[in-house]
Amino acid sequence: MVFPLEELVKFKGNAYEITVAANRRAYQLSMVKDPEIEENEGKVVSLAAKQLFNNKVTYRIESN
Question: Model pTM?
């Protein structure tokens, strides 16, 4: 799977926020060596974005 750009275009929220969330989720996936990475041909960032767009994983903004 490639990065779901069509989902990013349709996204009604802040594109910067979802991009940062996908980046952080990709880091989490790579650190725990999630088996879904192999199913996604090793593409961690696209897997993270897919999880966010499909609401499998959610994110929130924390204030300092």
Answer: 0.77
